[in-house]
C-alpha cells in the first residue's frame, strides 16, 4: 500500500475508534499520550486496517508503534 493510502486508512480508523476529528490526528502525534489510545484501541485500529485492506501486520512491528507515523509506515511496508 502506498504511503498516502496508508495514512488515509490509519487516520480514518483512528478517528472512528478514538472518536476524534481527523484534523487532530497528525503524523507526529503519540498514540497514547496525544490521542489517548490504549493498547486495545491500537489493536482495534490494526485489525480494522488488516480486514479492510487484506493485509497482515507483524506483531513485532505493531508492538513498536508509538506514533501515527509509525503506524502509517507499518501499514505502507
UniProtKB/TrEMBL annotation:
Residues 1-77 form the Carrier domain. SUPFAM superfamilies: ACP-like. Coiled coil: none annotated. It holds the Pfam family PP-binding. The keyword DNA-binding does not apply. Transmembrane segments: none annotated. It comes from Nocardioides baekrokdamisoli. This is Acyl carrier protein.
